[in-house]
Design a protein that fits this description.
10-stranded mixed β-sheet, 17 helices, globular
């Protein structure tokens, strides 16, 4: 039942500041770079486990960089979102993801935030236990089903606390932002240049709020809205996925290979709901032998909505599912939750949940979440209940250690916020809201589909972003591509 936190899905919200952010910073750490293949260099950065006690226990952050190829400006730190996404893997894709102009002028630097991937990771469950958790019925229709989901969520939370008792209270986005400032200093950059996508926008906005004087240029693409509650965030996200599904269905119905018998997007949504209802009662089969439950089928349908280029694959997956074969949906679901062909998982689901819960100061009770899920199902019949229930483990999480704060980043240099009109995972209104909240926010709109805009095929978007990163000049606020 991985939230759509990887997802891209999911991710954090109300952030915070505390007195230690303004304390006298320690001397910058150093990075010992070594070759790690394909022109990349790797290093480890030591950071305090608890930033309120900088002389106390330390953990390590894994860092990678691709040195600039030409007239170097400095470092461009990047984050792919999640929470739980690996910045190391993201940086490895830089040659295909970032323009040559950007790679010429900046060292491309990725890091796994604390708790994620190679950076002192949080790992709660065995691979078999995680498979069972993700496949569990996450849209309970009866009290026994709800009790089973509640127990599994409680077991998940307790397993994380048992395996990472020291780290778990310190994996919030605020702590990751403080790590990022130590990374900036270790890189030798006076100010931060940053590209964050999805959840990475929350990390970037939090950094700007804590360290406004250290901002050089920040691109926040597919923004989170830190001003709304977790339940509202999940509701908006579920609606966003349904908006994206309607756009997919409208396009699908113009093709001969479309799996729907309907003639309208709304009726196609109804067919999708019916498919998931049947799967809830009788899981689909797969060539791997793994049953494709309703939860896995839902994840498999969500994944291609992130990228318009994957719409034909979604049509093929749904056509097979209508025949009872869930193999393609299962493959998409595995991709979303970081499951490899050998059955092993990355820790993105566990770290994503840990960060989400650490950033949720008032987790809902099970009964409150059940009511919210019912309302979400009315507003977004296909995905609403699933997305809302996905944060149930936070109900059993330790309380968030810091109070929320409004993110203004007062005094920061101009910050560029990108929003995509039909973004499935981070609805467009979130980008509008974040741009308004940030004192120096500028909104750039992509009139298109898919999750995030930069590097997605729009020359207009890419040109504006590259120009801003290099020159620190934003486009006119409200520019559309």
């Amino acid at each position: 039942m991985a939230t759509v936190w990887c997802r891209a899905l999911l991710a954090a919200l109300m952030l915070l500041t505390s007195g230690c952010a303004s304390a006298q910073p320690p001397a910058p750490a150093t990075l010992a770079w070594s070759d790690c293949g394909d022109d990349f260099e790797c290093a480890r950065l030591r950071v305090p486990l608890d930033h309120a006690q900088p002389a106390g226990e330390h953990i390590e952050i894994s860092v990678i960089r691709l040195p600039a190829g030409g007239d170097r400006i400095g470092s461009l730190v990047i984050n792919p979102g999640g929470p739980g996404g690996s910045g190391i893997d993201y940086a490895r894709a830089a040659p295909a993801m970032l323009s040559q102009d950007i790679r010429e002028r900046f060292d491309i630097v990725g890091f796994d935030p604390r708790g994620v991937g190679a950076s002192t990771p949080i790992k709660c469950l065995t691979d078999d236990q995680l498979s069972a958790f993700i496949a569990l019925d996450a849209t309970p229709d009866t009290q026994p089903e709800q009790s089973a989901l509640e127990q599994a969520s409680k077991d998940f939370a307790q397993a994380c606390q048992a395996s990472s008792p020291k780290l778990l209270p310190h994996v919030s986005t605020t702590n990751a932002a403080r790590d990022m400032d130590l990374l900036r200093a270790a890189l030798g950059d006076e100010k931060l240049t940053y590209l964050g996508k999805s959840y990475g926008t929350l990390l970037g906005a939090t950094y700007a709020h804590l360290f406004p004087g250290k901002v050089r240029a920040l691109v926040l693409d597919g923004a989170m809205d830190p001003a709304i509650t977790r339940q509202r965030l999940n509701l908006d996200q579920a609606k966003g996925f349904e908006t994206a599904f309607r756009a997919y269905a409208k396009d699908c119905l113009t093709t001969q290979s479309c799996p729907f018998t309907s003639k309208t997007p709304e009726h196609a949504l109804a067919e999708m709901s019916e498919l998931l209802r049947r799967t809830d009662k009788d899981p689909l089969t797969s060539e791997t032998g793994r049953p494709v439950t309703e939860a896995l089928a839902t994840l498999g349908a969500l994944t291609p909505l992130y990228d318009r280029n994957s719409w034909p694959a979604l049509s093929e997956s749904l056509a097979e599912a209508q025949k009872g074969n869930g193999t393609l949906l299962l493959s998409s679901a595995d991709q979303l939750v970081g499951r490899a062909d050998d059955g092993t998982y990355s820790n993105q689901t566990e770290s994503g949940m840990a960060i989400t819960c650490a950033d949720t100061p008032t987790p809902p009770s099970t009964s409150a979440l059940a009511q919210a899920a019912t309302k979400a199902a009315q507003a977004a019949p296909v995905f609403g209940s699933y997305v809302m229930w996905s944060i149930l483990p936070c109900t059993f999480w330790p309380p968030a250690p810091e109070p929320p704060a409004t993110l203004r980043a007062a005094g920061a240099a101009p910050i560029l916020v990108l929003g995509t009109r039909r973004d499935p995972a981070t609805p467009y209104q979130w980008s509008q809201s974040l741009a308004d909240q940030l004192e120096s926010g500028t909104l750039l709109t992509y009139e298109g589909d898919g999750h995030t805009a930069y590097g997605s095929g729009s020359t207009c978007i890419d040109t504006h972003v590259d120009h801003y990163l290099i020159t620190r000049t934003t486009p006119r606020d409200g520019t559309r591509c």
